[in-house]
Amino acid sequence: MHYTRLELHFRPKALWRRGILVEGLVPGNVLGATVHATALQVTDTLVTRRQAKRRHELVAHVLGTAKTELPDDYVTLGARTPVVVGKSVVGRLTAVWTNRHSGAATHLLVRDTRRQVRIIPAELIERIATDGVRLKLGKADLNQLAVFRADAAIAADIALAFASALPDPKARRDVKVRVDDGHVTLTGVVDAAEVRERALRTAGRVLGVRGMTDDLVVAEALADQVLAAIARETAKKPELAGSPVRAFAEHGIVYLDGRVPTPAARWALEQVAIGVPGVRVVVNNLIAEGESPSRASESGPLTRNR
Fold first, then answer.
1. Are the C-beta atoms of residues 84 and 23 closer than 8 Å to each other?
2. Radius of gyration of the chain from Cα atoms?
3. Among 1, 16, 55, 166, which residue has the least CB neighbours within 10 Å?
């Protein structure tokens, strides 16, 4: 995820030879990055002179220029660095992702010959040297790797795809989409299982989606989900169990009926019900043992909004 990494994006048309080599990692658009070839740890950054002047704290840590000779175990990567599979150059580097705390390279971004940016996990790197980055896979395998796209672009394409896949405007409004680092989460309450399946299938086909989380709730199954959650809770805490609890759901409002051992159990099961995704309101008509229906309803049903 974004918060666990630093991103160094290589400027494609920058004047490499005029770069300033500074100690540490400078996230954003840079000329290059110095990497320990064995440990795959990014140690230094090649920046423009303007960047070096703007970041006054870096001036004291200038190590040299792009022409500075590096130790044998270190290589400077940039937009001109070729990526090799077998005997063929399959693309050029566009960026490196590192662990925010350790500086270890976790992924390389490579623009392939089709001009798509592929995400290369560090474990697929066979060797980093001055002549390029060699990968441990074949050409066909490269095309199976995830494509990198900005979250905003993915979200826009999902919205466009939903326009045809979900022709009912209400269905589109019911499905909420969140994209975080290529991972798509769908939430909301939909009217039918068919809408849920179509939304999942459509979003999963969008280019750049690297994972899916399904938090969609089908309205017609909401009562069953509440009863299942209550059954799990009473199995863990037998003191909550009484006569079988009944649940009814409509428009995200869940109605609970039945008898429970104590007022505390009535409140606990209400909390379980409101915790089920898709439940907006719980109307609690549960009656504790020893209470008469008239006494239990003196103050009306307990209602809790999410």
1. no
2. 28
3. 1
Give the pLDDT confidence of 261-305 residue by residue, as tens digits: 888 888 899 999 988 887 888 998 888 877 766 555 444 455 555
Which pLDDT belongs to residue 1?
53
The burial class, CB within 10 Å (0-12 / 13-18 / 19+), for 46 is: buried
Q: What is the DSSP letter of 123?
A: G
Phi, psi angles (nearest 5°) of residue 297 = -100, 10
Who's near 48: CB < 8 A, 6+ residues apart?
A: 11, 14, 18, 19, 20, 31
Helices (H), 166-237: 169-174, 193-204, 222-236
Give per-residue pLDDT as tens, 153-199: 999 999 999 999 999 999 999 999 999 989 999 998 888 889 999 99
Element (H, E) at 271: helix 263-274
